[in-house]
Amino acid sequence: MADQMTKTQVNLFGLSKADYRGNPSTLCQGCGHNSISSQIIAACYEMNILPENVVKFSGIGCSSKSPTYFLNRSFGFNGLHGRMPSLATGALFGDYTLHGIGVSGDGDSASIGMGQFKHVVRRNLNMVYIIENNGVYGLTKGQFSATAEKGLQLKSQGTNPYMPIDIAWEALVGNATFVGRSFAGDPRSALHSYAWGKEHEVALHELSFVPPAEDITVEYDEGEAKEVTLHDGSRIILKKLEHEYDPHDRTAAMRILEEANAKQWLITGLIYISPTKPNLVDLHNLSPTPLNRLPENRIRPAKDTIEQVNNLMF
Ligand SMILES: Cc1ncc(C[n+]2csc(CCOP(=O)(O)OP(=O)(O)O)c2C)c(N)n1
Ligand SMILES: [Mg+2]
Positive or negative CA dihedral for 170, 118, 96, 45? Predict the structure, then answer.
């Protein structure tokens, strides 16, 4: 009996939570990026996703470093700054049977990588694209990013004079088929209770030379607006979508984001979903065998075809 009680819990694949972990995080303690990594570990374990069937992508930044801190047994590519979408497109064309998870930052996606972001959304690549938005270029010491609020004052940066880019809005306008937003410190953000989150928490962090900050956690209900003070002293107002909100209605989604911008709210919840639009793989009618598993003689064009192409007059 005692033996049974100490037995490690496993999922349908017989894997324990530890099988979904990565290396210990080197990010600052209390950083929201770590909470997101924890939730990715918990979600993949709970959803019985085989780590070997996952491919992780990222660009450059603290957030983009975080795939090292989850799913050690998965494939992973760390790309150039802002260029993760190209990398992901190539890799998932090569093998569309893999689950793609991309992790990027607001600098990586909304500043240098904005063009890439808009196109990967437009093409509806079959992946989950997470943007860990802290309003700054964290890795290079906290310059304002393109998502920083106008008028935001930071000791080291002065006042931000520019209008912010709303990434959820950009995704929606760009024809994304799934747009959701959460606050890293919302314990119920993963559709589970606070108790569940605590119980399933994964220690990602041990040591750091940056003074550790407390994790910011906030609990608020559907329809509720809640002000939160961040580590740098800045404040945001979170507003969770109402229970009655219909995420299938794109016009309503645009209206709510526009209203939120006027009221300076950060809307959280499932903003938009369109389950029926074809993704990139469907659009290109790829072969049932993933391209990376086709033998060379099936990939190479026939001799006649090559001759035809070579003889084409432009
Ligand atoms: C081409 C290029 N330009 C600039 C940099 C410097 N740089 C490294 S990370 C970064 C910003 C990262 O910001 P964000 O994506 O928000 O990540 P965070 O660290 O905030 O998570 C910049 C500008 C770089 N590595 N490569
Ligand atoms: Mg950032």
Answer: negative
Dihedral sign computed on CA atoms, order 13, 58, 84, 177: positive
Asked if 20 contacts 44 with a C-beta cutoff of 8 angstroms, the reply is yes
pTM of the model: 0.87
Q: If you take atom 4 of ligand 1, which residue's CA is the nearest one?
A: 81
Question: Tokens 């304002």 identify what position?
Answer: 144
pLDDT in tens, the chain (314 residues): 555 567 899 999 999 999 999 999 999 888 899 999 999 999 999 999 999 999 999 999 999 999 999 999 999 999 999 999 999 999 999 999 999 999 999 999 999 999 999 999 999 999 999 999 999 999 998 899 999 989 988 877 889 999 999 999 999 999 999 999 999 887 555 433 344 444 544 444 433 344 567 788 888 889 999 998 887 777 889 999 999 999 999 999 999 999 999 999 999 999 999 999 999 999 998 889 999 999 998 888 889 999 999 998 76
- Kindly report the number of other CB atoms within 10 A of residue 104's CB atom: 29
| Distance in angstroms (rounded) separating the CA atoms of residues 25 and 103 | 15
**H or E element that contains 57:** strand 54-58
Amino acid at 10: V
CA of 82 to the centre of ligand 1 (A): 8
User: What are the φ and ψ backbone dihedral angles of 252, each rounded to 5 degrees?
Assistant: -65, -35
Index of the ligand 1 atom closest to the CA of residue 105: 15
Burial class (CB in 10 A: 0-12, 13-18, 19+), 59: buried
166 CB less than 6 Å from ligand 1?
A: no
